[in-house]
Every structure is written in C-alpha cells, then in structure tokens.
Design a protein that fits this description.
Length: 170
Amino acid sequence: MINIAFLIMIKYNIYLQEIKYKKEIETVHINFQLRFPDDKDKCSIQSLINEYLESKINNYPAMSHAYHFGYIGRCCTREILVFNQRYQSYCKNRIETGNQDEINFYSNALREAQELYKCYDLLDDSFCDGFSMIRRRRSLNDLKKLIGDESFYKGILPPSIPIWRFKIID
C-alpha cells in the first residue's frame, strides 16, 4: 500500500513539473509572438522547449548577472564594438603596407583585438531585447567562460582594444 502511494506521489510531482515547464515555455512563446508578430512561423514551440531545457541542463547564469558590469547598456557596448572594429581595420591596413616587423606586431595586435571583440559582443548580445532570454543567458555563460569566473562575478571586463600594445610617451 505504501509503494502505491509513493508511486502516485512521484507521478503527481512529475505532472506538476511538466505543467510548470509547459507554462514557462508557453509564456516565452507568447512573449515572443507579441514582440515579433511577423516571425510566428520561424518560432516553433519545439525550438523553445529545446532552448529552455538547454538552459536548465547547462545551468546558465541568470540575467541579473549582466548588471555585474554596471548599467553599461546596449548603446555603450555598440560604441565599444565600433571602436574595436576601427582598431582592427587600422591593424589590417598596417599589415598590408608594413615591413616584416610591423606585420608580426600588427598581426598579433589584430588577433588580440578580435578576442577582445568577442567579450563585448557577448555582453552586447546579453543586453539585446530582440533575442530570447535563453540566448541572452547563453551569451552570459559564454562570456563567463571567456573571461573567467572571478572576473565575471566581480564585473571586470578586459579593455576594448589591446592597450598594452601602445607605447607610453613621457
């Protein structure tokens, strides 16, 4: 008799969990449809379920962790990304026109700038309202992997360009 009651309790708990997940997923789906009514065909319930389960399994950081980096916002991250792109184009021009020493120096600087670009691009993705909450949390998780746990939770980002490459003028 106890075994039957125990099994009924387990089935009831599983049923409640399924209802909870289904309700959360339906809420995400409805919010998506309200925000982007033209993209109804592109957004399938199954893809939302897969994203939701992915976030639960991988234990992505909560969206509140984006504010460890201050209220930088999307407009500031876009400006930083544009600045980084300009620096990268400068490095590419110097690689094309320079001698062998300059080519080595600017190739390394370009590679470092591209790595730094990834950090700010992931942070920008986490602030983008157009992305699903799961994608934004995935961006935060990728950022945490890129800069390390300690820097992530302290809200410390690397500089937007490799400033250690600049010569100090006295």
